[in-house]
């Protein structure tokens, strides 16, 4: 009977019932409740759970990445019929050695002591940027430090994570490359490539305006850089001349992704609110996700001098202030009514206007007035009579600084008559209109370091305790590179 019942289960495709065993008298039943736990047991257990989950996720992801690199190399070698088997084997062995070196690097804990400060080249609301030298290899990097306490206080956790993720996921020549990220109880550290040519803002302050040919070069490279960020699944949201850096060849790279979003859960501020509250045993009501730029703090009032002269005089101060400058931010971001990557093209239009005219289209004596002009952009977008622009240049600006539903997309921008003659495939290989003249690999002459206030040789100590560090779980990163440039 049992045999026929089993065969019947197999033929019908249904699982056979599992016989229930009788529990003995000595069977122990556990009541799964937290009623008897101490006050700090639940937060500590939650923290341990998150750390374990993260540990094994990182281990599995790393194994998958190693296997993917091996398979890709094998596929590439198999397709190369001209290469000898001996040479193919050498390349596979070289990859194996490189993977072993990378595993050793990942096991090594990086810290501030591994880097020596050469010079501070930037200072912002939440941290600093320093040129540093790695003590064991002598390689030069730019080190960005962010104070955890300020990140928590100003609700910047989602923005910090988005910036780290953009840099970690990108291999694009249009994005500043991240080599390492690590943390200590006080600071987050991003170790990036050092671009010695300064930024586009410094060039605009120095030269006032660019010709249309020079503007065409920089705007075309910006188009490709923004497109690269969008292909990664991110929106920059803070495209401005300060964040367009110049490399040693004179070509541009995008930096400072502190306001970017990939619309991942870890790029949403409410995710961190729930994480910290759950780690501390607090239950909070579900709130709507938000991916917005903070705009309530626009209150920095300037002097009552001539608008344009005042804007130029205060431009560098705004770059270092907590408020920042709203000159390049699209109106739909301020209105918080939903937006997509088209907001970055508005910013590009504002930068193009500044390159050709000498100041942004909506600059005012106060950031509040600028904000009002951007919201009512159709009433305030005007081209000065004393600046002659070609029809193509003015048309492109008007097609970028417009309502989001009428704004040009990347393919339409590339085919606009203003870019006639631009070879989009080789533009990074042609000679740039401005190539930095560098005296050494640590030359910082293109950065206005004399405008910075006195800063200490090393970041100052601070305090960060409790489960707050859970918000920065997974921030550590080390880049695998086929060449030895990264480590």
UniProtKB/TrEMBL annotation:
Skewed-composition ranges (Low complexity): 1-15
Origin: domain of life: Eukaryota
Binding site residues for ATP: 144
EC number: 2.7.11.1
Transmembrane segments annotated in the record for this chain: none
Limits of the AGC-kinase C-terminal domain: 420-487
A GO term for molecular function: ATP binding
GO cellular component terms given for this protein: cell cortex; cell tip; cellular bud neck
Catalytic activity: L-seryl-[protein] + ATP = O-phospho-L-seryl-[protein] + ADP + H(+); L-threonyl-[protein] + ATP = O-phospho-L-threonyl-[protein] + ADP + H(+)
Pfam families named in the record: Pkinase
Protein name as catalogued: Serine/threonine-protein kinase CBK1
């Amino acid at each position: 009977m049992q045999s026929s019942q089993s065969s019947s289960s197999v033929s019908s495709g249904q699982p056979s019932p599992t016989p229930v065993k009788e529990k003995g008298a000595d069977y122990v039943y556990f009541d799964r409740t937290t009623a008897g736990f101490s006050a700090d047991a639940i937060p500590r257990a939650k923290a341990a759970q998150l750390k374990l989950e993260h540990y094994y996720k990182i281990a599995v992801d790393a194994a998958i990445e190693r296997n993917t690199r091996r398979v890709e190399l094998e596929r590439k070698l198999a397709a190369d019929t001209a290469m000898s088997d001996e040479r193919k084997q050498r390349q596979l062995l070289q990859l194996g050695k490189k993977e072993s070196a990378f595993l050793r690097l990942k096991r090594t804990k990086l810290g501030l002591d591994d880097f020596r400060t050469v010079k501070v080249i930037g200072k912002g609301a939440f941290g600093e940027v320093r040129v540093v030298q790695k003590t064991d290899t002598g390689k030069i990097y730019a080190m960005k430090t962010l104070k955890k306490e300020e990140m928590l206080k100003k609700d910047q956790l989602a923005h910090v994570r988005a910036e780290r993720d953009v840099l970690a996921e990108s291999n694009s020549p249009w994005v500043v490359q991240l080599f390492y990220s690590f943390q200590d109880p006080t600071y987050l550290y991003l170790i990036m490539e050092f671009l010695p040519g300064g930024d586009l803002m410094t060039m605009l302050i120095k030269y006032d305006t660019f010709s249309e040919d020079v503007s065409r070069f920089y705007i075309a490279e910006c188009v490709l850089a923004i497109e690269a960020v969008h292909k990664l699944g991110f929106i920059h949201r803070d495209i401005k001349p300060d964040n367009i850096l110049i490399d040693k060849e004179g070509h541009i790279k995008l930096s400072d992704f502190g306001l970017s979003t990939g619309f991942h859960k870890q790029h949403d501020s409410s995710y961190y609110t729930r994480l910290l509250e759950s780690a501390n045993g607090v239950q909070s009501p579900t709130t709507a996700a938000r991916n917005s730029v903070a705009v309530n703090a626009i209150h920095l009032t300037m002097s009552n001098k001539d608008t344009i002269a005042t804007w130029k005089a205060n431009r560098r101060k705004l770059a270092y202030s907590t408020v920042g400058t709203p000159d390049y931010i699209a109106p739909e971001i301020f209105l918080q009514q939903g937006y997509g990557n088209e907001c970055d093209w508005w910013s590009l239009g504002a930068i193009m206007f500044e390159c050709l005219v000498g100041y942004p289209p909506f600059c005012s004596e106060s950031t509040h007035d600028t904000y009002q002009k951007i919201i009512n952009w159709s009433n305030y977008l005007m081209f000065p009579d004393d600046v002659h622009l070609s029809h193509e240049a003015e048309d492109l600006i008007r097609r970028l600084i417009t309502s989001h539903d009428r704004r040009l997309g990347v393919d339409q921008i590339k085919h606009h008559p203003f870019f006639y003659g631009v070879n989009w495939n080789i533009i990074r290989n042609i000679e740039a209109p401005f190539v930095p003249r560098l005296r050494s690999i640590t030359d910082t002459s293109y950065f206005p370091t004399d405008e910075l206030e006195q800063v200490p040789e090393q970041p100052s100590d601070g305090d960060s305790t409790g489960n707050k560090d859970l918000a920065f779980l997974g921030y550590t990163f080390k880049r695998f590179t086929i060449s030895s440039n990264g480590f």
